[in-house]
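Progress narrative, Year 2. Work on Fucose 4-O-acetylase from Weissella cibaria advanced from sequence curation to structure prediction during this period.
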Amino acid sequence: MADQPVTPVKKRSRRFYYMDILNIIATIAVMWLHTSEFAFQYTPGSPRWVLSLVIQIAFIWAVPIFFMISGANLFNYRERYDTKTFFKKRWAKVLIPFIFWTFVWYAWNHFVGHNPDWSLIGFWNGLEYDTIQPIFWFFYFIIPIYLAVPFLSLIATKANQKVVEYIIALYVIGVGVINYAYTLFHRAPDQLVNNIPMVLSTGIGIFFVGWYLHNFNISKRMRHLLYGASVLGFVIMFSLTIIFSAWRHETVRDAYSIFTIGGFLMPLGVWAWAKTHFPLDWQPGPKTTVWLKRLSGVSLGVYVIHEFVIAVLEKLLHLDQSSYYHMLALPMVVWVISVAIVLGLQKIPGVNRLLP
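Result:
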């Protein structure tokens, strides 16, 4: 009688606490980005405008860090569970909160923001075209990546190191340099560029570089190179923003997008710093462990509600976006309040599914 096939034993999920730290600081960085939007009001002679621009560019690495964490965690999902379980977990964590909070923002825009649009068709159009809450572009970007993870995970293996390096290099050249140049000079991508969608029309390279930096050691020399790359990324984006904004007499936000060479380089140093100072085998104390898990676990909830907190505080405290308090103190106030709200809501049965 032939032996029965043995079902492979899935590895138990191991927690890497440096990713919790990255998650927490990236969430805080988002607060700084969304309280320094005075940068969008081009005022070149104002020190406040320069400060707001510095903050915008200095914290632009926030969302790429989230994408890198997703790549590092999800590209090896097959070691822990099957594809069906992967999709069930992702949809519960992202799709349901996305639809629910989009509706909440739609209601807010109507009843508080006095937007006259209030209909099922209006909600569907807003959901379809991302016109309800601009910062939710994050969901529109990451959901298609989740759909691609089952085959991307087959590429992301240590045996395919050179293939992954090729994908990252192609992404840097295609998105970071070629598309960046087309965008800055307002040129439509040519036929050649349009026909290389895998590396040019998505941020796939950001996910792969997260997986790569997590799975391969970062030498001291490489760490210093990545730190230098982060500084170089800031210098490139700041310089080009100043130059192109002066040329067009408006803040050119495309000059410091995450889909630029600078936007690619900046999070690399942040990742290298966290992984070096909190290595893979680092085990924090019991209390620290609890709080790292809690604060990391509220990141999505903080992301979807913090703009409510900003709007309310601006109204109650009569804050102008150009004030130093708005740019320097408000970010941490918003983060603390948002964390407290999410931690409270997560204790309510049913509601915790909307703020996973």
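The chain has a mean pLDDT of 91. Residues 17 and 282 are 7 Å apart (CA to CA).
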